[in-house]
Amino acid sequence: MPHPYVLLSAAVSLDGYLDDTGPGRLLLSGPDDFDRVDEVRASADAVLVGAGTVRADNPRLLVNSPERRAARLAAGRPEYPLKVTVSGTGDLDPAAQFWHTGGDKVLYTTDRGAERARALGLATDVVPLGPALDWRRLLEHLHAVRGVRRLMVEGGGHIHTQLLTQGLADELQLVLAPLFVGDPRAPRLFGPGAYQAGRLRLVETRPVGDVVLMRYEPTAPGTGPLPVAADHHWLALACELAAACPPSRTAFSVGAVVVAADGTELARGHSREGTDPVVHAEEAALAKVDPTDPRLPGATVYSSLEPCARRASRPAPCARLILDAGVRRVVTAWREPDTFVAGADGSGVLAAEGATVVVLPEYEEHAKAPNRHLTGG
Ligand SMILES: NC(=O)c1ccc[n+]([C@@H]2O[C@H](COP(=O)([O-])OP(=O)(O)OC[C@H]3O[C@@H](n4cnc5c(N)ncnc54)[C@H](OP(=O)(O)O)[C@@H]3O)[C@@H](O)[C@H]2O)c1
């Protein structure tokens, strides 16, 4: 089930705190950065904060710029993004500004929390998600029922920690403010948890007034059948590589990336790469990895088209090459059509030998794009 693109947004002090312990909200950003945040909010379909932030900061979470609100309306969008909050207890102040400003609101909670929220008469839609709150279900609900494609998450630390450790955050927008808090009782951005091994990808740094914005993407593949945000990034890259293939009337254009469990890219390849007119993408990528590399058994292969199951031009199809390399997880966008081989089932070959195959159909059109001359449509 598709999820919205999830963007985590936060500002921290030089010593890594989200706030101090005083009664008011600590202003970490300056005017230029508040304006940048306003712009990001205006780009989002929904803005989410945890109940702890609603209680501590009493935020309104509006798009403040009239021009940005007008642009949203002109584009056929609501004037304000949907406001979303999350609470297990449902115990929130009915007078909080969150409920009484901006556009639509929704509270995701537990069954018990929903009883409490309704008893309090909170001015919001209340969506119970069962005895405990499940983030995947919440994101699926936002996508399917509320039409949210881009979700901005503005804290606090408990929310950011869960979304990042569960592999559900596509991007982290972190602002570093030039001040110290120095109080160990103050809330931190990220708490303890099972974070991805390895390094995130730095995609941008930018001074904004006296703060610095850093944007990061997670890199570590998932470990089972459930996709994580980094799986989406790597599969999108595989689809982009497919577009770089020399064109052919007799073979698909495919891109592939091999990624270690800690998010390190081991190799990439595409169809007909270099001087080999028949090489396949997965074959080209795997040929660049030392077959004794101990990271291969924990690696994931991303391929824009599912690995081939039968092949005339080489002794071994790509599904076999992947299994022989020891890789046990494959993420793909597009099941192979009957264009060249009837009933090809590379996913079945992989699964029969214990590999996990994850298909993300939301990338199918991207994978097909350089192959339109072969498949039509
Ligand atoms: N600097 C910044 O950019 C920034 C941004 C936002 C917030 N902040 C600061 O962060 C602090 C608040 O952060 P916080 O970590 O204490 O609170 P939080 O993350 O905003 O909210 C935590 C609350 O959300 C609910 N919740 C979270 N995960 C849940 C789950 N899996 N199931 C059910 N309910 C769940 C619970 O509400 P219930 O208790 O109702 O069950 C929990 O107490 C404040 O000091 C605020 O100023 C700073």
UniProtKB/TrEMBL annotation:
Q: What class of enzyme is it?
A: hydrolase
Matching entries from SUPFAM superfamilies are given as: Cytidine deaminase-like, Dihydrofolate reductase-like
State a single Gene Ontology molecular function: diaminohydroxyphosphoribosylaminopyrimidine deaminase activity
Q: Which UniProt keywords apply?
A: NADP, Oxidoreductase
Instruction: Describe which pathway this protein belongs to, using the record's wording.
Output: Cofactor biosynthesis; riboflavin biosynthesis; 5-amino-6-(D-ribitylamino)uracil from GTP: step 2/4
GO BP annotations of the record are: riboflavin biosynthetic process
| Entries under PANTHER family matching the protein | 2,5-DIAMINO-6-RIBOSYLAMINO-4(3H)-PYRIMIDINONE 5'-PHOSPHATE REDUCTASE, DIHYDROFOLATE REDUCTASE FAMILY PROTEIN (AFU_ORTHOLOGUE AFUA_8G06820)
- What is the role of this chain? Converts 2,5-diamino-6-(ribosylamino)-4(3h)-pyrimidinone 5'-phosphate into 5-amino-6-(ribosylamino)-2,4(1h,3h)-pyrimidinedione 5'-phosphate.
Member of which family? In the C-terminal section; belongs to the HTP reductase family.
Q: What is this protein called?
A: Riboflavin biosynthesis protein RibD
The protein's organism comes out as Streptomyces calvus
